Amino acid sequence: MIPRLYIDAPLASGGAAPLSADQAHYLRTVLRREIGAPLRLFNGREGEFAGEIADLGKKGGIAAIAGRTRAQDAEPDLTLFFAPVKRAAVEMIAQKATEIGVRRLVPVITQRVTAPKPNLARLRAIALEAAEQCGRLTVPSVDEPVKLADLLEAPGVDRLLFCDEAGDDEAEDWGGREGRAAPVLEALKTFDRDAEAWGVATGPEGGFTPAERASLRARDFVTPATLGPRILRADTAALAALVLWQAAAGDWRRR
Amino acid sequence: MIPRLYIDAPLASGGAAPLSADQAHYLRTVLRREIGAPLRLFNGREGEFAGEIADLGKKGGIAAIAGRTRAQDAEPDLTLFFAPVKRAAVEMIAQKATEIGVRRLVPVITQRVTAPKPNLARLRAIALEAAEQCGRLTVPSVDEPVKLADLLEAPGVDRLLFCDEAGDDEAEDWGGREGRAAPVLEALKTFDRDAEAWGVATGPEGGFTPAERASLRARDFVTPATLGPRILRADTAALAALVLWQAAAGDWRRR
């Protein structure tokens, strides 16, 4: 297994890259690697490079950079807006959303959120480690939490897939917007999927309130969708929606 | 929140059902419910019934059964064949596969499996609790582990979606079976999805060996499929494949 490391510095064939104290510790003490051991390096901008350990000390190290092994490629523009839930579930969301391939993770505060503010530094570390392990060329960002109302005013995406776990109650009035929520694959068929920045929004345990659901559905950029006939946990719903988006509209369509 | 309980006994309107010692403890001590508190009951065969607590003691209790609230409906015939991985990941697979809607969970021993035999009693308890919480009318079975070679001789399913995480190496010879693995949604399009019992097979960390991959691909009932360009962890791959099967071929297609 060749260690694969994210480097927060420019990378170029024939050059050198700094290794942080954490990375040096990981290579030396956890993996027991020595000078000359091979590495893979990426920085989120310039692709992936082969390299090797040139120096390794207690305060950091240096990697010698050989040739480029992969060019930076375009990644789908997908953001997960998730309501914070319990710590273990949020950490799983960060890890698996990174593997599935989101660009950005944004905690969204809704009325039924009871979990404390997530530990963003911890989520960033989890996303970074998952990016190193899954072969991505970027590390997703983990943004500061936003309130749902603020998100709806400035979503930063062109379309938002709203996972309406509560399903449809035909007695409810969606402010003139007709129709029941469709299964995700059906909902995604109606859009120009390649041209836009997409978001996926999932609620906390207990879901969105009726007022929140009406507010989401009142926006033209919001597409409501259902995730099957069973009640999914918040973390399962987030991962399921991301998987379906990637398979129907993202880079899982590639052979 | 009305507690929803799986009852291992016949259920009929106007009758009574036994509550186990564990269920009585859960109702009395964890949820602090008393005689007369409402319940939902299901047994995997006769639908779901409303009921209430009629008696509650240290060694068990009795539920009085009122009317039926849901008829038993047909569920997709989907089995997950998963290679055992670390305990936490296997437990997450059992919980989330139940929510996503599998009928059967089967641990499969492959060459690269290094995890010990999973604790089947623990996985059954997790599946039961997940079934109670997600509103299913059945509890999936958790079978004894089988070896991959034995599974391929007697799969017990009509079609097996083989998640070939390692992807395609064009230099490899698939014993005369042509072509690269397709993305899951594309692979599923080619089958009569409603008529058959399906399985989904996912490997351990490190994937299947080349010999195992060739052996899987040599079977007519096996359909190889890919899960995107990144390397998914074993648990992520299992859940992603189940979600895609349900959305493309299972009961997530319903509005």
Molecular structure report:
Two copies of one chain form a homodimer. By secondary structure, chain A is an alpha/beta fold. Chain A folds into two domains: 4-70, Beta Barrel (Ribosomal Protein L25, Chain P); 78-253, Alpha/beta knot (3-Layer(aba) Sandwich). Chain A has seven helices and 13 strands. In chain A, strands 6, 7, 8, 9, 10, 11, 12 and 13 form an eight-stranded parallel β-sheet that branches. The mean pLDDT of chain A is 92. Chain A binds chain B through residues 92, 95-96, 99-101, 133-136, 180-186, 226-233, 236, 239-240, 243-244, 246-248, 250-255, and chain B through 92, 95-96, 99-101, 133-136, 180-186, 226-233, 236, 239-240, 243-244, 246-248, 250-255.
